[in-house]
Design brief:
38% helix; 311 residues; 8 helices; binds zinc ion; alpha/beta; five-stranded mixed sheet; 12 strands
Length: 311
């Protein structure tokens, strides 16, 4: 009897743990034929399974176009199953906006399809994928089970292409990473900006070049979009998240440059007060700490270079 009870409990706990790896995917309609799976504005954790990112899809006459595949194999599989069930159509292609792990580790579930990305994104996944994978296993644990690195298998062709009645334009930018793909749907006016744009969530900078990033934001502002899908945070019908990301990056650049000029050490820079404008922005202090670690050493080294000799 005891043994039977034990087996029963074991079966029950296996069932429970299997059930607990369901991502709470709720498609939000943001424009005709267009849906977003909105992640939380949090850090990676074993609670959220890495669902801290926005993934999207466009339902065209020829099938469904997916933009970003999320943080794990499980995510990609659940995303694809949900899309195919909700739309009754097959996924026909995938775009990956950039090489960060929360955006492409679901690729495994789409490996039979063309997965497009910018060439430098493909190289980034090939170069850093294993390191990202180790990190992700550490951060989100069993959500990552059986996830492996699947690099995008097609180079994205820039410019416009009509797919099943949607005129999509692929645009290459840089600054958040060395290669940031934006997708602009001229048919609906939806701009999928990837991590060039954050909304009420502090920007991450492990591969950032802030000067390039600010230039890219200027270009994005010129596009006649009606709906803006940031990489993280809520979808909007205005350009406010671009303005916020720009203001945050300008502030970050300014404090880092001033600190380097004044010879501050990293801990002192991390203690810089967060301005009132960004107090409500999720993870502002965490990301400031990380950005100092990522970006400050180069600025300090710049400062220590001997002044150029007068000629
Ligand atoms: Zn990113």
């Amino acid at each position: 009897m005891k043994r039977l009870l034990g087996i029963g409990l074991l079966a029950c706990s296996i069932q429970l743990s299997a059930a607990s790896f369901e991502y709470p995917l709720q498609p939000q309609a943001i424009a005709p034929d267009t849906f977003v799976l909105e992640g939380k504005t949090e850090d990676f954790s074993k609670e959220n399974g890495g669902y801290i990112v926005n993934a999207a899809y466009i339902v065209t006459n020829d099938g469904v176009v997916v933009i970003d595949t999320g943080p794990s194999r499980r995510f990609g599989e659940q995303q694809r199953a949900l899309i195919e069930k909700a739309t009754g159509k097959r996924v026909i292609r995938v775009y990956i906006t950039h090489h960060h792990p929360d955006h492409f580790f679901g690729n495994q579930a789409f490996a039979d399809l063309p997965i497009y990305a910018l060439p430098e994104t493909i190289r980034g996944v090939q170069r850093e994928g294993e390191t990202f994978s180790n990190n992700m296993y550490r951060l989100i644990g069993d959500w990552m089970r059986d996830t492996s690195v699947v690099a995008p298998n097609q180079e994205a062709k820039l410019g416009r292409e009509v797919i099943g009645g949607h005129e999509l334009e692929l645009l290459a930018f840089k600054g958040h990473t060395p290669a940031d793909l934006a997708v602009f749907d001229h048919t609906t006016g939806v701009l999928f900006a990837g991590d060039l744009v954050f909304n009420q969530r502090a920007a991450t900078t492990p591969h950032a070049n802030i000067v390039d990033w600010l230039a890219s934001l200027e270009q994005l502002l010129k596009l006649p979009f009606k709906v803006l899908v940031p990489g993280h945070g809520k979808v909007t019908q205005n350009d406010q998240p671009i303005a916020q990301t720009r203001a945050y990056l300008v502030w970050l650049q300014t404090i880092l440059q001033q600190a380097a000029a004044n010879g501050l050490d990293m801990n002192e820079v991390m203690a810089t007060p967060i301005p009132a404008d960004f107090k409500e922005v999720a993870l502002a202090q965490n990301e400031l700490n990380r950005s100092v670690a990522h970006l400050y050493p180069a600025l300090e080294a710049e400062q220590l270079k001997p002044a150029k000799q007068a000629e």
